[in-house]
Amino acid sequence: MGSVKIEHLNKQFNGNTALEDVNLEIREGEFFALLGPSGCGKTTTMRCVAGFETPTSGNIYIGDRNVNQIPANQRNCGMVFQSYALFPHLNVFENVAYSLNIRRFYEGGLGTKLSTLAHLLNRRLGKVDRITEQKVRDALDFVELGHLADRLPGQLSGGQQQRVALARALVMEPAVLLMDEPLSNLDKKLRNVMRVTIRQIQQKVGITTIFVTHDQEEAMSMADRVAVMHGGRLVQVDTPTALYSNPVNKFVADFVGSSNILNGMVKGVNESGETVIRIDENRQLRTTYPTTKKDVEVIIRPESIRLLTSEHAASDENILDGTIELSTYLGPTIRYDVKVGELRFEVDTVFEAGSPILPSGTAVKLQIDPNRVVAL
Ligand SMILES: Nc1ncnc2c1ncn2[C@@H]1O[C@H](COP(=O)(O)OP(=O)(O)OP(=O)(O)O)[C@@H](O)[C@H]1O
């Protein structure tokens, strides 16, 4: 049973609050990301689950078992860190076998302890280690590193080292896999590759995984669900798509992807049931988003805005007239910074080969679908 339940978790360090009333239920087999800026409490939450940190109050369950009093080495959690923490003098195979041998040493009788010790000292595999050998080979095959078993960590790329670290965690067949910023040391391209690799391995093994990251793209592309943290508290726990389209507040909207955020005042509801919001003296927008507030924050994703030039026929539905201030080519998309009166909008459009990038100074119309205007 690899579900994880966190109930009313509080953690203080010398009177300073690091975690405040954190409540989470992570389902068995789920890939769950803890996301937030530096210092928000992600690592502390994970360390409390692992047993490296003692909660000030609250309960933690792994499966049905309350693990509050269970030491870290008996919680059956596998860990992967940012620094791969491999032994530089042991080869790949030995690095992965090490933790199994340590467990055999602690859990075995005197005979096992002696043979394991001998093995660790000799670093040679004897008969007694057949099971170990098979498990290590399987784990290395899983991360597709079987062919590099004899290499030392220093002879591997960063991505390969991280896969060794993953194999070392998986070989223990843990109930829960805990990963703390495992991709931070890799360059962007390799990080993107490793995201897919880790996700594929996690799905193959079906292991409950908690993944700590400050990178929203990483969390959103890998996780089944994401918990956004801020100042030691959970702000929103949701699927990536729900977080993106329905952020509960400005912090989440801003942290998860880029957003246009405007101050608005609700004028009323029109006959179609849409809320009409004034965004400045001369302009208003309609939204289908239900709100009971008078003063609202209007949140619009850059790709939710349709950019029209004077050539396009447009109705006057939720349209704002503006002027392009800056055009930035980003490969698959173009980001336009558009001035609308005193307001500024970021608009993302798909780049199509052959079609021109509109220059600064071009007069444009911004058409905004009322279904994609969030008012908080
Ligand atoms: N051992 C400690 N002693 C004192 N304060 C600590 C300790 N560990 C963490 N903190 C504090 O608790 C808060 C949460 O830290 P934590 O490491 O959990 O944040 P984080 O979200 O993982 O940040 P980062 O992404 O920078 O690692 C921070 O204010 C941090 O300074």
From TrEMBL:
Molecular function terms, GO-annotated: ATP binding
Coiled coil: none
Keywords assigned by UniProt, alphabetized: ATP-binding, Nucleotide-binding, Transport
Segments forming domain ABC transporter: 4-256
Position of the signal peptide: none
Superkingdom: Bacteria
Keyword Repressor among UniProt keywords: no
InterPro entries in alphabetical order: AAA+_ATPase, ABC_SmlMolc_Importer, ABC_transporter-like_ATP-bd, ABC_transporter-like_CS, Mo/tungstate-bd_C_term_dom, P-loop_NTPase, Transp-assoc_OB_typ2
SMART domains from the UniProt entry: AAA
Name recorded for this polypeptide: ABC transporter ATP-binding protein
Protein source organism: Brevibacillus choshinensis
Species classification: Bacteria, Bacillati, Bacillota, Bacilli, Bacillales
